[in-house]
Amino acid sequence: MKEVSGIKNLRMPRVSPLLLRNLLLALLTAVALILTVPRFDYFWLAPFALAPLLVAVARQPSFLHRAALGWAAGIVYWFGVCYWIQFVLSVHGGMGEAGGWATFLLFCLAKGLHMALFAALAGVIMRTAWAVPTVPALWVALEATHGPLGFAWFALGNAGVNLNLPMRLAPYTGVYGLSFVFAMMSAGVAVVLLRRPRGELLWLLILPLLILLPSLPEPERPQQTVVLVQPNLSMDVEWTSESVERLHRRLVSASLEAAIQAGAPKPALIVWPEVPAPLYFYEDARFRDQVATLTRVARTGLLMGTVARNQDGAPLNSALLLSSAGEPVSRYDKIKLVPFGEFVPWPFDFVNQISDEVGAFSPGREVVVSRMDGHRISTFICYESVFPNLVRRFAAAGAEVLFNISNDGYFGTSAAREQHLKIVRMRAAENGRWIVRATNNGITAAIDPAGRIRAAAPSYRETVERMPFDYRSDLTVYTRYGDWFAWLCALMAGLALYLSREYVT
Fold this sequence. Notes:
The chain is of the alpha/beta class and 505 residues long. Helices cover 41% and strands 13% of the residues. The protein is built from 15 helices and twelve strands. It has helices at residues 17-35, 51-59, 63-81, 84-92, 96-125, 131-143, 164-167, 170-173, 175-193, 241-259, 285-298, 388-396, 416-431, 477-481, 484-499, and strands spanning 224-230, 269-271, 301-309, 315-322, 328-333, 370-372, 375-381, 401-406, 435-439, 445-447, 453-456, 463-469. The strands form two sheets. A six-stranded mixed β-sheet has the order 5-4-3-2-1-12. Strands 6-7-8-9-10-11 form a six-stranded mixed β-sheet, covered by helices on one side. The radius of gyration is 25 Å and the shape is globular. The chain starts with 16 loop residues before the first helix and ends in a 6-residue tail after the last helix.
């Protein structure tokens, strides 16, 4: 039989042993980063997690190969940290298992491009004598772009929320200062593993200077009390007029019982979470009467999540503050909406909305600070906690305490709720403010100005809790000036890349 010409010359493309070893190193970084995040929470890995990837890209001459290594690491990282997105899409997005997995994998492929760009560019800077300070600057510069480019979640610096010394940076640089420190330590480890001149490690001598920064505020006994309602509502309830009315009565009676508890001081506020239930204050006159009666009898205000409408009739995810007389004081409309939950980003138009509202939610436009009993308060809603520069705007505008209402029920029983809590704790330390969280089924908590959890309710349980808080009016450096450090890092990274252009291959 005549042999088909050329078949015998077919060969599978050969992958170099160096590229394979470097791929293993890149994946080791992905695993290490995943392990720093709850539920594993091995935060002590944060200063070393990027080192394997940096060693790999320093040894890899090809720009495209470095990008491929970073992309592989980024895909695995986002898969391991945000695995709960598949559940959200499959169950609450109505996409089914196959659709949920397919869309989630597309998400991982897209988010992995951040790490691809970092790896490709870091490989250039790693060849220079100034790699130790400028590779972390590159990391921070790219880390700060996650939100503007579609989806932000767990920044590297969030792993350090329980570390007293690095956390001293939070009121000055925000979370990005901690990300810089951890990335800088990883760059130092990579320099050692690459047997580079020890003089390149001298940059690390700036890290002990952290001890010169003021300590975070010591725990103090707070003077105020708030009533937090955690209704533990199922995400799969088919609401009827009867079940909605029962829910209204439950919320009102539980709130009132806790607010007028014998021997307990009058709470400064009652707070209901962002809930997966039809709470239409503006459209339901009977419900308005019920909450007005609650505030008058309890003699305190009520902060609640509700659905409002803009001038065009589009739904708004809102936080409404009522006075002790039952009158609306202010309303904050959520500015940063959840991708796939409250709007569908391009090019994923085919994805179902998680929300039951008709049409996409419309974003709010303004930061709102409200007056209550002579003090100023603000509320941010759920996913907005991942945007440091947004949260700090409330404190900069005069808020003396911050409330975070959230519905983490979409996460199921995954580690996302623990991840979310750590993110909120960082926002408290950045701004030197108490943050009080009311959630549907956890984690409801009171967080002090150092990011410490001072009280927390059990998850997955219907409960009403009294929790402490206090007012503070001083402004941190981060609150005043925002992401100045991230911008400085972007400038440093750009300059480093310019000076390293001779190494580009």
